[in-house]
Design a protein that fits this description.
globular, ATP-binding, eight-stranded mixed sheet, nucleotide-binding, 11 helices, ATP binding, alpha/beta, ATP hydrolysis activity, 359 residues
Length: 359
């Protein structure tokens, strides 16, 4: 959407988010942990759109909620405009939420069906004490008009709107306080294709008009390519590649990123016929007990013995631009074909046995 290279708005520095698994009835004991986000380093610059992609369960949504301070982090820190938000007081968090808002995936579940739309969109003004009475109603109706809704529908309930209109309501609510960062957690995945295009174009127009910064999470790789300046690829709780959108889609360097992008749909039938699909073997390892070394090595067609023991750093690899980071010991070379190649390192089991709780 916009150019990169500006001031850093928010950064994640070695962020961990683990969810404990407990067993027992009266005295619950922690027996394991789900490593949802496991050491993520990420930066988002002012005015850009950062796309985040990866398989289901890779930690995208958990990372988004950590960036929005909806989940407390287990380790590391998140810095927003120079302030570590992981250490903010309750009052500090309330002020922070004026600058960071989320658009949720489900346009049905994210709106209270018993409340009128005007009340839902007006909540941010009420919570932060910014407008009341006629002024609040006027500002809510301005927001409704901004996102393409009829201001006269102020008193309707969510059930009286379509899915696309409900998502516009969610967008209006997110924009009420004029935030600096908007985190879009799969905002179009629950919508029809024709409605998806409308919402995506709306988000682009609003970014240009209001100078917004987006973190855009999606499964649809073509959507991410269309909206993003930069793209971060996640696998099993970690970022494995981070690059400008054109750079990543033109030549992914991490074998997982290459396999993921090979699955993207191609509109041109001739080009689609020539494209090679990289089919990964094995299952995604459990985040309860992730593999040692590089987490992708049990499924990687380029894996070698070093990948089992050494965890690769997310850094610039030979010949890549300074903003193209890859966490791989043996990155994909230009013109290299991975289709049909089997994984080099096998894995005995991807489902760990949980230890029994002792009384």
């Amino acid at each position: 959407m916009t150019g990169t290279g500006g001031e850093v708005l928010v950064s994640a520095e070695g962020v961990f988010k683990h969810f404990p698994i407990r067993q027992g009835i009266v005295f619950k004991k922690e027996i394991a942990r789900v490593h949802a986000v496991d050491g993520v380093d990420l930066t988002v610059r002012r005015g850009e759109t950062l796309g985040v992609v990866g398989e289901s369960g890779c930690g995208k949504s958990t990372l988004a909620r950590c960036l929005a301070a909806l989940h407390p982090v287990t380790g590391g820190r998140i810095v927003f405009e120079g302030t570590d938000i992981t250490r903010l007081s309750r009052a500090g968090l309330k002020a922070f939420r004026r600058d960071v808002q989320m658009i949720f995936q489900d346009p049905y579940g994210s709106l209270n069906p018993r409340r009128r739309v005007g009340s839902i969109i007006g909540d941010p003004f009420a919570i932060h004490g910014l407008a009341d009475g006629a002024e609040r109603k006027s500002r809510v109706q301005e927001l409704m008009e901004l996102v393409g809704l009829n201001p006269e529908h102020y008193n309707r309930f969510p059930a009286e709107f379509s899915g696309g209109q409900r998502q516009r309501i969610g967008i209006a609510r997110a924009l009420a306080l004029k935030p600096k960062l908007v985190i879009c957690d799969e905002p179009v995945s629950a919508l029809d294709v024709s409605i998806q295009a409308q919402v995506i174009n709306l988000l682009k127009d609003l970014q240009e008009e209001l100078g917004l910064t987006y973190v855009f999470i999606a499964h649809d790789l073509s959507v991410v390519r269309y909206v993003s300046d930069r793209v971060a690829v996640m696998y099993l709780g970690r970022v494995v590649e981070d690059a400008a959108g054109a750079e990543l889609y033109g030549g992914p360097r991490h074998p997982y990123a290459a396999a993921l992008l090979s699955a993207a749909s191609i509109a041109d039938p001739d080009e689609a016929e020539r494209a090679e699909r990289i089919v990964l073997t094995g299952d995604v390892p459990s985040p309860i007990d992730p593999p040692s070394g590089c987490r992708f090595h049990p499924r990687c067609p380029k894996a070698q013995d070093r990948c089992v023991t050494d965890d690769p750093a997310l850094t610039v690899r030979g010949g890549d631009p300074a903003d193209h980071l890859t966490a791989c010991h043996f990155p994909v070379e230009p013109g290299e074909h991975l289709a049909g190649r089997a994984a080099g390192i096998s894995q005995v089991s991807t489902e760990p046995e949980l230890p029994e709780a002792t009384p």
